[in-house]
Design goal:
The protein is mainly alpha-helical. The protein has one domain. 51% of the residues lie in helices and 0% in strands. This is (salmon louse) hypothetical protein.
Amino acid sequence: MPLAKINKLYTQLNMKCMNDKEYCLIMKPFTLALGILQGEDTCFYGTLLPILEILMAKTLAVKNGLSKMKGELPDIIVKAIKSRFAAILDSKNELLATVSLPMFKLRWVSEKPRKDYIKFLLIKECSSLSEKLPAQMPDPHQDAAAPTEDDFFSFDAQLDDSNLPMSVETEVIDYLRFAPVMKSLHQFPRVKKVARQYNAAAPSSTPDNK
């Protein structure tokens, strides 16, 4: 909203008008957020949730730079954001879309209980998307070995797990610890499936839909 319209409201309420410095201070987080949402490299659906969380935090952080009469404005703005986006702030789809993007993962979440919940959602979703691997069949062309001394001295064989598929929980934990780069998804096939399913690039020509 332009400063002139805001000050018109303040005048009608018999309140001191907002100055340019205060207006810029309040609008800066919104300007940065809109710029990111309209960018070509950050147009994934999972980008929205971290931006909203950071936007609210940055909006509250400007309170100290406002006059006493305007000090409650950031709280009002954050309350409006929570009301407008209430349906997605804790939605399963939005949480999975965000956590499956390497650039975000759980880095945008500060509360441990919420981190644990989102991690649980990712493990559960990866489990549901996991494909059962066929059991390995013995090689029919392999000749039976002749009895040797090795057959006599038989000990418990050590399981070679180098070729076994990674468990879902291990994959998710390793993914969350890995570097925050998109190409890392190739190493985590289940998480990659989640990212593909819950993220879609929005056309840059329609910023109002982001």
